């Protein structure tokens, strides 16, 4: 028994030293030119990357957490309760998607992998090797792509209001009044062409939470349930009666579950075989 305890202790130490990927030790310093300020006085910067100019802002202090907004959204479209709660423990990186807000579009065809490459371009410019990610709606699929193609750049991932079949989502959006905006039309077209490679989901080793409202008529709940079953150890959180905009319908509770997931390391070190 004593030898087992010693081996377990050594295993835990090794896990703590080399098994958990390093997260940003110091706060990120802004790079690029300051081009504006938001309504709260936070500076908005712009960097060049992946063939475009990417607009972003930094709020708070701590480990990095990048917030990626949905179709037609800009960096202001987040629950103030989430921003307030998360920025107390994390340094938030909030960016505009390609062609929206302070981020430009160079005319390249939109794909979710391209959106993921935009995220990586911003992280590279900021010198961030690994970050937590919260992707909403369109950007929940961007987050899927980050987990598939850039898993080493992601610590924990929150996949909020997601879809495994974009054509179904696009069909729903066609019945809704969308702005007559060329970028949004390109976003919808990218959604129509998306299908999650389900065979890759069991290969994901990152800690992932699927978060969805049970009354979400845009994406429904089945995609989140499917991914939760396929991704090893994934959390599935469903807000009863919550719609696609659950972060505004239950702001405190939404912020609380996000923070709970980020703060818990639910991975138990494997016992030593020696």
Structural write-up:
The longest helix has 18 residues, at 2-19. The chain is globular. It has one domain: Alpha/Beta hydrolase fold, catalytic domain (Rossmann fold), CATH 3.40.50. It has a nine-stranded mixed sheet, sandwiched between helices. It is α/β, with parallel strands linked by helices and 274 residues long. The chain is built from nine helices and nine strands. It has helices at 2-19, 80-86, 112-126, 138-149, 166-174, 182-192, 222-230, 246-249, 251-263; strands spanning 33-37, 43-49, 52-60, 63-68, 90-95, 131-136, 154-160, 207-213, 235-239. The chain is 36% helix and 21% strand.
List keywords for this structure.
274 residues, alpha/beta, Rossmann fold, 36% helix
Write a concise synopsis of the structure shown.
By secondary structure, this protein is α/β, with parallel strands linked by helices.
Chain oligomer state: single chain
Q: Average pLDDT, to the nearest integer?
A: 90
Strand content: 15-25%
* Structure classification: alpha/beta
Helix count, per DSSP? 9
CATH topology descriptor: Rossmann fold
Widest sheet: strand ordering: 1-2-3-5-4-6-7-8-9
Low-confidence stretches: 1-21
């Amino acid at each position: 028994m004593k030898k087992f305890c010693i081996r377990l202790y050594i295993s835990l130490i090794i896990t703590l030293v080399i098994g958990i990927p390093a997260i940003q030790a110091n706060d990120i310093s802004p790079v690029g030119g300051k081009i504006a300020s938001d309504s709260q006085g936070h500076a908005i910067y712009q960097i060049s990357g992946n063939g475009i100019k990417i607009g972003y802002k930094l709020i708070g202090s701590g480990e990095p957490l990048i917030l990626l907004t949905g179709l037609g959204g800009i960096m202001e479209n987040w629950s103030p309760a989430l921003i307030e709660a998360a920025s107390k423990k994390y340094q938030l990186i909030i960016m505009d998607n390609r062609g929206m807000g302070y981020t430009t579009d160079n005319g390249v065809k939109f794909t979710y992998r391209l959106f993921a490459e935009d995220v990586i371009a911003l992280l590279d410019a900021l010198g961030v090797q690994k970050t937590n990610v919260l992707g909403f709606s369109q950007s929940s699929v961007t987050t899927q792509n980050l987990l598939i193609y850039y898993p080493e750049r992601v610590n924990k991932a929150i996949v909020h209001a997601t879809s495994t079949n974009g054509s179904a989502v696009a069909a729903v959006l066609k019945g809704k009044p969308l702005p007559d905006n060329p970028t949004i039309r390109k976003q919808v077209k990218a959604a129509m062409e998306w299908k999650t490679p389900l065979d890759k989901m069991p290969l994901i080793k990152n800690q992932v939470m699927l978060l969805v409202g049970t009354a979400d008529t845009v994406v429904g709940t089945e995609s989140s349930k499917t991914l939760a079953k396929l991704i090893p150890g994934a959390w599935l959180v469903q807000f009863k009666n919550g719609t696609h905009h659950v972060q505004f319908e239950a702001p405190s509770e939404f912020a609380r579950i996000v923070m709970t997931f980020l703060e818990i390391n639910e991975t138990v070190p494997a016992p030593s075989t020696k």
